[in-house]
What does this fold into?
Amino acid sequence: MFVRRTAALTAIPVAALLLAACGSDEVHGTITEEHKAAHTTWSHKPVTKRQCSTSRKDGKSKKSCRTVKTGSKRVSHRELECWQIELNDDEHELCISKSKWDKVRVGDKW
It folds into this structure.
């Protein structure tokens, strides 16, 4: 019980600080975008290896190396669930908490 109470009392000032940061003069606008679910996109990355060979000319050895493409591999890019809002000032996108998300709607002033 003591641990829960301490955690709750600690969370209040942290939440107040975060709300104060969100209310700064730098970010203002109208909310124009809603929740973005988690999703994964894929891309291909080339796979390479270093291939070396040695040649002899006039009794001297010369080693030369080059990078050779051996194929490609799929790379996943995971984007976590985000309660994202985009402000109509075309400069800011904010990821906010679920509890704050429940209190705002498209068209609200930020």
Notes: The first strand starts at residue 39 and ends at 57. The beta strands are 39-57, 60-79, 83-86, 93-96. DSSP finds two helices and four strands in the chain. The mean pLDDT is 75.
